[in-house]
């Protein structure tokens, strides 16, 4: 508990004056009301939903895609109707018990889905849903708006969905949409309306009834709908008692993963780990960085992932020192290392892995020295990783361990002051040890990394060491080497569980894995 209090103090110093944050953190630390044990909530099986088995809504259902679902009670693969309902109720309870929310009995929450981003005339990028919207509804369609109407006295919750109406002419081109009927039958909305009636319907249903209205104004993913929502909120004819920004309230719920979310995250980590193994095994001098990108994506999708989590970093040699290098255009040269940072998305849940390996299959002495140093730093952090410590605490562990190890290799002069040392070490690893992981790669970004870790949280652990080829202050043999080792870690009551453990990271294991590269299974000519 002492460390929790220290963390709380740190959080308070950073967010001094932000009472809202304080209230969230206190609630988090006391933990009992909403969050503690969230991952243990049991979602009972309900009676068979009253659905037409012919339901066609443009996204997989248990009826249309039997290979993806284990039960007809799931709305999206792995997540049941009960769990989606629980998430909506949990959010409204948290909002109604917020320090502002407590002053009001009636609460409205409004959230837009993402829009379809256009790649070129008439042709969109693959659609990616707003993760808050997907978390609360399971709806994987652009443009919709979700409204939750909650009364804290009676605990009555109504779920409204505004969706594009069914239009056979439009669906001939773009495929099926959900439509109003399935919004109710399949997604369990209490009522559904056409999207273009949003403003008039909201005026009609909720005007003048003393609501505290919550909405999201940060990191929104639909500029058009956001304008429509803001116009409604700013309309003096739309009477309400208060308007509140959602803030981190939903992220506090998303921070602790449920058992079904953990299953999906494990699956995502397993797919990506296996794909990384194959990419490592296939690497050889003369390939292009983008070839490894292509292999990673191929392997992840062959194994059932829908996307890569983000454009991967495939950085040969000195490019590894550019942290967000995604050009992936360079030749992979004999004698260099290659750093790959990537992961996949499996039914809404992502993995995020980094490995660094020798292009020719064998570490040089200098590469091995620095690689094993980073591995040692990661192991040191993993030993510290347990309930109640925070990501910030683990970051500090990484910096201290890096400093100690680099000093042994002659990176710093003997008489360097500890303040100078801290500054110099952060030049060799300018990023944080890790971040929360979930539906987003950088999950729940509004939550401070000083929060104590709890079972059900998932984090990345990614110590790195980056020595620029132009750094004349270090021995020549180390210049131009960039290394990062990243694993995905679930916090459990029994300690850290490494979800990416099946992917080798010891020097010997990697060299052994690459020993078979001559029998490359991919026919990429070099
Ligand atoms: Mn990461």
UniProtKB/TrEMBL annotation:
Every Aminopeptidase P N-terminal domain range: 79-223
Q: Could you tell me the Gene Ontology terms of the biological process aspect for this record?
A: proteolysis
Asked if the record carries the keyword Protease, the reply is yes
Cite the Pfam families for this sequence.
AMP_N, Peptidase_M24
UniProt GO cellular component terms: mitochondrion
Q: Which UniProt keywords apply?
A: Aminopeptidase, Hydrolase, Manganese, Metal-binding, Protease
Question: Could you list the residue ranges forming a coiled coil in this record?
Answer: none
Q: So which cofactors does this thing need?
A: Mn(2+)
Secretion signal: which residues? none
Q: Which GO terms describe its molecular function?
A: manganese ion binding; metalloaminopeptidase activity
Q: Does the keyword Transmembrane helix apply?
A: no
| Classification via SUPFAM superfamilies | Creatinase/aminopeptidase, Creatinase/prolidase N-terminal domain
Stated family: Belongs to the peptidase M24B family.
Q: What is this protein called?
A: Probable Xaa-Pro aminopeptidase 3
Q: What is the lineage of its organism?
A: Eukaryota, Metazoa, Cnidaria, Hydrozoa, Hydroidolina
């Amino acid at each position: 508990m002492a460390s929790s209090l220290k963390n709380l103090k740190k959080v308070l110093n950073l967010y001094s004056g932000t009472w809202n944050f304080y209230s969230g953190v206190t609630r988090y630390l006391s933990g009992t009301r909403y969050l503690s044990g969230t991952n243990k909530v049991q979602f009972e099986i309900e009676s068979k939903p009253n659905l037409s088995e012919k339901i066609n809504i443009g996204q997989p259902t248990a009826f249309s895609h039997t290979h993806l679902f284990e039960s007809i009670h799931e709305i999206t693969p792995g997540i049941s109707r009960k769990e989606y309902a629980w998430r909506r109720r949990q959010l409204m309870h948290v909002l109604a018990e917020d320090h502002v929310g407590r002053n009001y009995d009636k609460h409205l929450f409004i959230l837009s889905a993402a829009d379809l981003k256009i790649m070129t005339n008439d042709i969109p990028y693959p659609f990616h849903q707003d993760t808050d919207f997907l978390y609360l509804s399971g709806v994987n369609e652009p443009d919709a708006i979700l409204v939750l109407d909650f009364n804290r006295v009676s605990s009555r919750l109504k779920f409204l969905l505004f969706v594009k109406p069914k239009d056979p002419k439009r669906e001939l081109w773009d495929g099926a949409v959900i439509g109003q009927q399935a919004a109710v039958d399949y997604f369990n909305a209490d009522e559904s309306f056409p999207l273009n009636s949003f403003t008039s319907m909201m005026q009609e249903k909720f005007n003048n009834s003393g609501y505290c209205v919550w909405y999201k104004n940060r990191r929104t993913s639909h500029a058009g709908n956001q304008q429509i929502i803001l116009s409604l909120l700013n309309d003096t004819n739309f009477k309400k008692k208060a308007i509140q920004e959602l803030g981190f309230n939903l992220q506090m719920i998303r921070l602790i993963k449920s058992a079904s979310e953990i299953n999906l995250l494990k699956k995502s980590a397993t797919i990506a780990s296996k794909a990384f193994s194959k990419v490592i095994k296939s690497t050889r001098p003369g390939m292009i960085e983008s070839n490894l990108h292509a292999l990673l994506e191929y392997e992840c999708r062959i194994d059932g992932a829908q996307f890569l989590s983000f454009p991967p970093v495939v950085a040969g040699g000195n490019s590894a020192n550019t942290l967000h290098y995604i050009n992936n255009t360079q030749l992979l040269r004999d004698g260099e290392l290659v750093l790959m940072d990537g992961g996949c998305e499996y039914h809404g849940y992502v993995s995020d892995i980094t490995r660094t390996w020798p292009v020719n299959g064998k570490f040089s002495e200098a590469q091995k020295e620095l690689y094993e140093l980073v591995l040692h730093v990661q192991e040191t952090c993993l030993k510290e990783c347990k309930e109640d410590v925070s990501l910030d605490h683990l970051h500090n562990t990484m910096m201290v361990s890096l400093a100690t190890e680099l000093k042994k290799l002659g990176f710093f002069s003997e008489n360097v002051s500890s303040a100078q040392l801290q500054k110099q070490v952060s030049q060799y690893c300018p990023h944080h040890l890790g971040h929360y992981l979930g539906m987003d790669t950088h999950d729940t970004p509004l939550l401070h990394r000083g929060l104590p870790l709890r079972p059900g949280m998932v984090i990345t652990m990614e110590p790195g060491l980056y020595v620029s080829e132009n750094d004349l202050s270090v021995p020549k043999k180390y210049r131009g080497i960039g290394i990062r080792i990243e694993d995905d870690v679930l916090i459990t009551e029994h300690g850290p569980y490494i979800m990416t453990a099946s992917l080798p990271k010891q020097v010997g294991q990697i060299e052994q894995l690459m020993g078979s590269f001559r029998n490359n299974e991919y026919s990429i000519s070099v």
